[in-house]
Amino acid sequence: MTDTIEKPSLNFVEQIIEDDLASNKWDGRVQTRFPPEPNGYLHIGHAKSICLNFGIAEKYGGGGNLRFDDTNPIKEEGEYVDAIEKDIRWLGFNLDDRVLFASDYFEQFYEHAIALIRAGKAYVCDLTSEQTREYRGTLTSPGKDSPHRDRSVDENLDLFQRMRKGEFPDGTRTLRAKIDMASPNFNLRDPVMYRILHADHHRTGSDWCIYPMYDWAHGLEDTIERVTHSVCTLEFENHRPLYDWFLDALDVFHPQQIEFARLNLGFTVMSKRKLLELVRDGHVEGWDDPRMPTLSAFRRRGYTAEAIRNFCDRIGVARFNSRIDLAVLENCIREDLNKRAPRVMCVLNPLRVVIENYPEGQVEELDGINNPEDASAGERKIPFSRVLYIERNDFLEDAPKKFFRLAPGREVRLRYAYFVTCTQVIKDDNGEIVELRCTYDPATRGGSAPDGRKVKGTIHWVSADHAVDAEVRLYDRLFTEENPDKTKENTSYLDCLNPESLTTLSNCKLESSWRSAADATTWSDRIVRVQFERTGYFCLDPTTSDTKPIFNRTVTLRDTWAKMQKRS
Ligand code: ATP
Ligand code: MG
To answer: Do residues 42 and 171 both lie within one domain?
Structure first.
């Protein structure tokens, strides 16, 4: 677990780039790419890769392509393409005309394959996938040559062309690189370059019935785009010899592959297969369910792009895998929202309070500070009247000495308002508390007593007649285990889903000024981020209706009580 992170001035990828610039290795050019497979939505791990690749391009005045690695027609969809683009733009990277598709290079891949066959470095193999696996050998024993390994160039050309024409059914033949069946690196044991797959592709339709494998396609994509630094995650380290072999065999522009550690985050999963499963099987409400680690979920939850970029920057880029504490991310979010989120009061679990000595029908407007961290955010008027709501758990009938909130006979400060004292507790037939009777001290307007008397607690409240009804959704971590991928035997990550990851409160009472908290520009996009005093940062859900706003809790506040007590 990485808790505190020290950031060196240059990460190791930037160091490589600066060395290359100094030696003029790439004629002073820097070209990177972010190559997602469009088979799911982007998650926070992808954000790390995006910030690294596009950040480098920005920093060194180079180019950074968004290249869809869309070589597998079966799992890929246009929906994902759109979502990925949207998320990257939201993160704040300008894509201009740098959105590229590997499928646009299919013809070039094919030509390169022909060249490799001509050079005697690739052959058509008729083994089934099962046989191919058998022939591959094991970690301790070398593989066996395919019986088709020594086909003539002419026969290979003929068969490969017929594969493309669609003469053979799925799975009957492959094109393989002729490398070394005894290599200690499995990836070099005559890897498959093409497979037959009669399936329509989201962009090329039915043009192709052979599709390139990842390792074959990826280096070619990089060379076609003249990528200088092909940055990928550590699991591709032992694919690098194959990446290099293909590009050397073709004698083409040869980018440098550099691997870095992928981001793992506590209490969530990051594999797209698992995220898809969570969505498809209804464990969450969709890719943008605010409990997901996807960028669309983070956006919906109220995380800001700036905070996510700051997080990616702060965790740094390393060569060894680690798991980042969720708290590191949440702190970045808090830090950012603390500066930008206006404060309002919202009572999540309301308890009615009648101020008995406050005149019926009277309303006064009290001054509230919109953001103590930002004087330019100004002040607002908060209506106060005889009937209020306070938070149910801010009252205890049998309160211990250390309970500084409201209790029978005790005095507490209502934020921005008055000192009130609880005089009576009213219960229903079941003994449940339904109302409190209090008195207020008119001399304490604004929250301090002229006689210098102190109260220990300050609680939030809203005026009953002025409150807006709201629904509030509280989110907790999606899993109960820090590493859901590593569960006990015979259990799956699904067994540690947190049953309490979502709490919906449908009877919340919100301060009426909340809407003015959103400035006009963000209101049109329904991006409203506020701090509900003492309960956390919240964000208006985009599905919200005009009659009853829905707020998602972005993140809790930390040390709320410590702070409140210092102020009083
Ligand atoms: P899978 O979940 O199946 O492993 P993937 O997340 O690697 O897939 P890609 O679409 O291939 O999906 O990822 C695009 C790019 O994002 C790749 O360069 C990959 O290395 C990088 N990437 C993916 N996950 C992470 C992560 N957790 N941290 C950093 N980079 C990541
Ligand atoms: Mg991948």
So the answer is: yes
φ, ψ at 503 (rounded to 5°): -120, 120
Copy the structure tokens of residue 150: 């020594």
- What are the tokens at 497? 């889903």
Note whether 183 and 189 are within 8 A (CB).
yes
Structure letter (DSSP) for residue 444: G
CA of 37 to the centre of ligand 2 (A): 7
Q: Is the pLDDT of residue 559 over 70?
A: no
Are 350 and 254 in a shared domain?
Answer: no
Q: Is 454 part of any domain?
A: yes
| Widest distance between CA atoms in the chain | 102
| Residue closest to 109 by CA, chosen among 228, 220, 243 | 220
Q: Which of 49, 214, 221, 237 to mutate to test the pocket of ligand 1 (most atoms within 8 A of CB)?
A: 49
**Minimal-distance CA residue to ligand 1 atom 4:** 271
Which one of 442, 469, 496 terminates a domain? 469
Residue 324 lies in a domain: no
pLDDT digits (tens, 9 = 90+) for 84-120: 999 999 999 999 889 999 999 999 999 999 999 999 9
Q: What is the CATH number of the domain that holds 465?
A: 2.40.240.10
Tell me how many domains the chain contains. Answer: 2
Please check the confidence at residue 8 and state whether its pLDDT lies above 50: yes
Considering the domain architecture, whether residues 237 and 353 belong to the same structural domain is answered as no
Look-up of token digits 């930008």: 340
Last residue of a domain, one of 231, 260, 289: 260
Q: Nearest C-alpha to atom 9 of ligand 1 is from which residue? A: 36
Residue 567's Cβ-count burial label (10 Å; 0-12, 13-18, 19+) is exposed
pLDDT in tens, 342-372: 999 999 999 999 999 999 999 999 999 999 9
CA 367 to centroid of ligand 2, rounded, Å: 54
Distance between CA atoms of residues 148 and 145, nearest Å: 8
Single-letter amino acid code for the residue at 33: R
Determine the distance separating the centroid of ligand 2 and the alpha carbon of 534, expressed in angstroms. 41
The verdict on 198 and 86 lying in the same domain is yes
Q: What is the CATH number of the domain that holds 47?
A: 3.40.50.620
Residue 307 lies in a domain: no
- Give nearest CA residue, ligand 1 atom 25: 45
262 annotated active-site: yes
Which region, left, alpha or beta, applies to residue 447 given φ > 0 means left and ψ of -120 to 50 means alpha?
left
Beta strands 529-532 and 343-344: pairing type? parallel
Range of the domain at 110: 20-260
The sign of the CA dihedral 404, 405, 407, 410 is positive
357 in any annotated domain: yes
- 243 and 387 within one domain: no
Whether residue 249 is found in the same domain as residue 370: no
Give residue-wise pLDDT tens across range 183-228.
Answer: 999 999 999 999 999 999 999 999 999 999 999 999 999 999 999 9
